[in-house]
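Internal QA ticket QA-208
Title: Verify multi-chain structure generation after dependency bump
Assignee: T.L.

Test input:
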Amino acid sequence: MSRLHILQSKFQRTILGAEDMLEKEIVATERLSVDRRIAIYAEAYRLRLTECLRENYSALYTLLGDEQFDALCRLYIDAHPPHHYSIRWYGDRFAEFARHTAPYSGHPYVSELAEFEWKLMEAFDARDARPVVLDELAQLAPSQWPGLRLEFQPCLQRVELTWNVAAIRNAVDEGRTIDSPQRGDRPAAWLIWRKRLTQYFRSLDDTEAWALDRARDRATFGELCEGLCEWMPDREIATYAAGLLKQWIGDGLVTKIQTDP
Amino acid sequence: MHNNEVRRLPNLGFGLGLRTDHYDSVIAERPDNIDWFEILSENYMVDGGKPLHYLDAIREHYPMVMHGVSMSIGGADPLDRDYLKRLKALAGRVQAAWFSDHLCWTGVDGTNIHDLLPLPYTEDAVSYIARRIKQVQDFMERPMLIENVSSYLNYKDSSLTEWEFVSAIAERADCYILLDINNIYVSAFNHEFDPQEYLDHIPVERVGQFHLAGHTNYGDYIVDTHDHPVIDPVWDLYADAIRRFGAVPTMIERDDHIPPLRELLHELDRARDIARPILEEIAA
Ligand SMILES: [Fe+2]
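Actual output:
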C-alpha cells in the first residue's frame, strides 16, 4: 500500500468514526488544534449526508421532525457510508434500513414512506421515452389485438402501500399540515410515473394492478383478457381491457405497441 | 519550469454556476449579462427528466463548462472508468469548452465521502496525480482544469507549499488551473500564509478560470460555505489576480441561501467593474 493510500485510509476511518489515528499525521497550530481541524471534516461529512437525506425524503423528514429524523440518519450514515459518485443516490437503502432497525421497525409507515419517496426520485430522472398516442391503437386491425404486447416507460414504478403515505407526501408537497399515519385494511397497489417533467402517482384497483403487472411482464392482450375472466363476466372483458389500454396510453405510460409475435 | 508553449484557454467572459433555483429565470429572462454557465457535472449524469431537459434548453443559449466533484484525482483508488465515460458523454452533449475538478481526493477503498479532502503536498503525490490527470485528459479529449480547494488541515508529510504543489502538477500534467480566489483567501487564513505570495507563484499561462464565492468566518477558522456574497478582501485579491493573470473567465459560485438570479448578476457586474479598468490599464 502506498504512503498516500495509508494516509487516506487513516483519514477516512477517522472521519467515519472508526478510529482516531490522525493526531500523529496533522500539523497543529496555536490557533486551531488538530482535533478541531479533524472535526471540521467529520462534522461536515455527517451534515452533508443528513441534508441530502432530508431532501430525498422530504415528507418523512417533515413527519418525523428534526430530532427523530436526524437520529435515523445518524444510524443509517454509520451503517451505510456512500459509495456512488453522485450524492443523488445516497439513501438507496434507507427504506430497507428503517424496516429492520428499531425503533423504526415498530412503525412500518417509516419504511413505507421512505420506499415511496425513493421511487418518486427514481421516476424523477429516469430515461425519457416517447409515449405512444391513442391513434396507434386505432390503426390496429382487429386480428392484431389478441397478440399485442406493450412496452412501458422506464420511469414507471409500482409499490404496495398499507399506510396513507401517499397522502402524507401530497400534503408536504403542497405545504399543508399532514395527517397522522393511518393504516389501511390491507396493502393497496400504487403506480408512480412521470409524464414529461411532472411526477404523478395514483392508486390502482386490484384488477388494474393485476393487469398492469402482467402487461409489464410481456403478457399479450389475449392473455390479459383470459386472466380477466376471474374478475368479471366474459361479456365485459373486451371493453374493460380496451379501456385499460386507453387509460395507460392516455397517462403516457406506454412507449410501444408491439404486434409482431 | 515554465512552459512557454502553453496555449491559453479562450476568454469566455463572466459566468455563473448554473443552479436549479434559476432554471426558470434563465429561460424566461435569458439575461445577456451572463456570458456562460458552469454546470455541476454529477447533477447531469442522470438518464432523463428535468435535469437534462433544462440543461439542453439553457445550453441552446449559453456556452457551458463542466465542474465535477467526484473524480478524486488525488485518491489512492483507481480512476472510475464508468464515471469518466459518463463525464465524457456529458461533455459531448453540452460541447463543454473544458471540464474541471478539484485537486483533492473524495474517498478511498470504494467509499465516497462527498467532500473535497486535503492532499499531502509531496513529490510523490505530484507525480502520481500528474500521471492520472494525463490519463483523464487523454480519455476526455478536452482540456482539464484542476481547482485549488479550501482546506482545514495540513499533513506533516507535506514538503511543498500549496502553490508549489498546484503549479508543479499543472506543469507536469500539462493541464490548466482553475484558481478559486476565495479558496486561496480561506486557506491562507486557516493555514496562516500570505495569499499574495500564493498568487505570485502560480504560472500565468496555466490559469484558465477563476472562481469567486462567499464563505463563513467562525473566528479561528473560515469555512468555504458558498452561502454569502463575496467579501471585500476577496474582491481585492481578485483585482490582484486580474493584474497578474489578465483576462481570465470569471464566475461566482453560490450553493446555499441562493438569492434571485438578478442579485447574483449584480454581484457578477461587480467582477466586471473590477476587471475592466485593470485590463484597460494593462492594454495601455
Ligand atoms: Fe470553487
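Spot checks passed. Chain A touches chain B through 48 residues (CB under 8 Å).
Status: verified.
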